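okkk here we go again. third time trying to get the zinc ion bound version out, last two times i messed up the smiles copy paste (missing a bracket lol). double checked this time i swear
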Amino acid sequence: MRMIRWATLAVAAIPLLASAQQDFSKVEIKTTALREGTHMLTGAGGNMVASAGADGVFLIDDQFAPLSDKIRAALSTLNDKPLRFVVNTHWHGDHTGGNENLGKAGAVIVAHDNVRKRMSVEQLLLGDKIPAAPGVALPVVTFASDLTLHLNGDTVRVKHVAHAHTDGDALVKFERANVLHMGDVYFNGLYPFIDAESGGSIGGLLEAVDSGLALSDGTTIVVPGHGPVSNRAELAAYGAMLKGYRDRIAALKAEGKTLSQVIAAKPTAATDETLGKAFIKPERLVTFIYETL
Ligand SMILES: [Zn+2]
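finally!!
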């Protein structure tokens, strides 16, 4: 397990979920060049990847609405062409909050069918009611299994992975740049959130990690939904860790242990200190796995 780098990360304050009360005034959008005209953008919420080139600008995820102007300002430093497409990796508000503003500005929003379905009606997320999004924020182009964009000299494969973090997740692979955005299938440096209310499951999450591994090689730049930029070896270690925890929790459940007995057995103790201090605490991770087995 390559946990050393993870252990050194500051991951305490990652605002994962939309909050109307949150103060975004001090958030800065940082841009990091990746490869072949692709860039990672971070601010508050899910990691974004932008492609800027001769055909214009293309963006994966768009964080929260109050950050849209700052995100557009950051994109305008990449080139002076318009933002043409936004792909959402899934429906959560820390990845789609900018859709309304960017849709109004003319971007075509692309996502899996279930992203549009969920954003069209009120959702429950960790006990909070999330209202339906306005029409202009909804994906205009949706797909069931996959879709390909041909932009800026690259071939961009958008691939649905079923019942993983939600029921509408997509992985996005830039073939020429060899950059892979994993969406919230991959939390780097902290335990993942599995949104069972939105159709997520541990089995689907593990299959989605395998799909990401199949799409990558030793030089792929792997962008997680949350946490620092990563690579295939770290993604493989993350998948192996979760598979181990899934197997241990499944065995305890098969013995007839209740959820509270399994939590008390601390099946994830090996990484609780390094990965379990941020958004998702160890007992939450155990609960997600136990309940979605
Ligand atoms: Zn999410």
